[in-house]
Amino acid sequence: MLETSAGYGQLITILIMAVALGMDAFSLGIGIGMKGIRLLHVLKISLLIGFFHIVMPLLGMFTGQYVSSLLGQVTTYVACGLLVLLGGHMILNSFRGGENRMIDHRTFLGMLLFSLSVSVDSFSVGVTLGMFQSDLILTVLAFGLCGAGMSILGLLLGRRVSRNLGDYGEALGGAILIAFGLLFIF
User: Fold this and answer.
1) Nearest one of 118, 175, 176 to 152, comparing CA atoms
2) 26, 103, 157, 186: which could form a disulfide with 150 (CB 3.0–4.6 Å)?
3) What distance in Å separates the CA atoms of residue 144 and residue 53, rounded to the nearest whole number?
4) Where are the transmembrane segments (predicted)?
């Protein structure tokens, strides 16, 4: 499957994107962790984030494949534009006030909304990767594992570090997505 150097390049690209998307879960997890969180909630939230980081890009990839069949050659530019816009959005969100983004993580609805909110970005990236005909299983597993793992790190680190680290983490994730969008264009 990944026997060629192009296959390894795709693997590295997917892993870097998975980490970039996980930065959102990481940064917001730090904020929630600073409010105080039990280990059981860390596990529940992280599993939900991992689940949504699998489902959302999967839906996005199917959408991207459909859009790709409609747009043809324009697909590459549309996909790259989506990455640049999504990265810019993540950077702008990192500089906004954080308190309005906080959701009560102790309720099931709060956990569900938080998990979905940090996973929505992976839908857009899934659309982009669907247009590029990316490896489906590799992509969704990498996104799910990175999303869950980085949320665990963020939630646990949030109990010990300042909020500013979380904001910079989300900005870094956005910068990575912009870089890939521009790289694919040129």
Assistant:
1) 118
2) 26
3) 5
4) 12-33, 45-68, 74-95, 107-130, 136-156, 168-185
Distances in whole angstroms, Cα of residue 117 to Cα of each of 3, 108, 109: 36, 14, 12
Structural domains counted in the chain: 1
**By residue range, what is the domain housing residue 64?**
10-185
Q: Per the domain annotation, does 165 fall within a domain?
A: yes
The structure's pTM equals 0.73
The predicted pLDDT at position 161 comes to 65
Dist CA 70 CA 10 (whole Å): 24
CA distance 126 to 138: 12
pLDDT less than 50: residues of the chain: 1-2, 99-102
Tokens of 161: 């570090």
Question: How far apart are the C-alpha atoms of 17 and 143, rounded to whole Å?
Answer: 8
- Report the pLDDT value the prediction gives residue 165, as an integer from 0 to 100: 54
Residue among 61, 90, 65, 109 at smallest CA distance from 170: 90
Residue 162 structure tokens: 């300042």
Token pair in block for residue 142: 């990498």
